[in-house]
Write a structure and sequence with these properties.
Elements (H helix, E strand, L loop, with lengths): L12 E8 L2 E10 L4 E9 L7 E7 L7 H6 L2 H8 L2 E5 L37 H16 L3 E11 L1 H12 L7 E4 L9 H11 L3 H7 L2 H6 L2 H11 L15 H19 L3
Parallel strand pairs: 4-5, 4-6, 6-7
Antiparallel strand pairs: 1-2, 2-3, 3-5
Helix pairs in contact: 2-9
The structure holds ligand LAXINWYW.
Amino acid sequence: MAAAAPPPAAALEQLSKTKMFGGHNLRFRHQSASLGCPMTFSLFLPASPASKLPVLYWLSGLTCTDENFIIKSGAQRAAAAHGVALVAPDTSPRGLNVEGEADSWDFGVGAGFYLNATNEKWKNWRMYDYVVKELPKVLTDNFEQLNTSCASIFGHSMGGHGALTIYLKNTDKYKSVSAFAPIANPINCPWGQKAFSNYLGTTKSEWEAKDDKFLAEQLLAGNFEEACKAAGAPLILRMQPGYDHSFFFIATFIDDHIAHHAQFLKSG
Ligand SMILES: N[C@@H](CCC(=O)N[C@@H](CSC=O)C(=O)NCC(=O)O)C(=O)O
């Protein structure tokens, strides 16, 4: 008996294409099975690679779409130089009209926190599954020039929290991680408490089960450094005096982060 035909590749609608540093910024929309709504993502593809391109995922912070990073960070210069593709997803489901989803800027739309919500009301907020499972498959199915099994992840603020937690739960899937000003201990800060109590319920032990215990208890800059030393985990912790939380700060140090990831992505 003949083997069953593989399922068709997820349909992608290309929204834009702009040349930059010899490569292209591309923006796509597709129907997300994880989130139950259309999702957009941006992709920077460096110029015609000799071999398949490794993938560096960027997770943005509160209020962002997939476009903030692509427009403001200037990351494409270093990505083109190192031959690394950049993938930036949106930060939450949109257009579902869940009651209250846009009442505040730090919860709901634009604030997916890269977790899988367990509260029925927010059941579509499954950004963890979207980033870890669905998006890599969409890329694999649609871009033969990408080597999606060679991937790293980084992000900013809420996206820094997402990058760190996703990496620590999936060290087999990502070669390296970095974060700009991450929400490092969400269980103990107002942004995290608001998100977790609504997405995951008010039982704090449930939050810890959903979060990485190491992160929740130790990821306060200095403490995190000590913990990494104790665990023998390599860490470069850089404090940058005088910089704020904006993309001006990110743009200043983005080249360093991409060079860091390129070392791991290009080491075979
Ligand atoms: N609207 C808020 C500010 C929101 C903000 O600063 N968002 C950051 C991420 S914060 C943590 O996740 C961001 O990246 N914004 C997008 C941008 O392009 O700067 C306010 O009014 O204070």
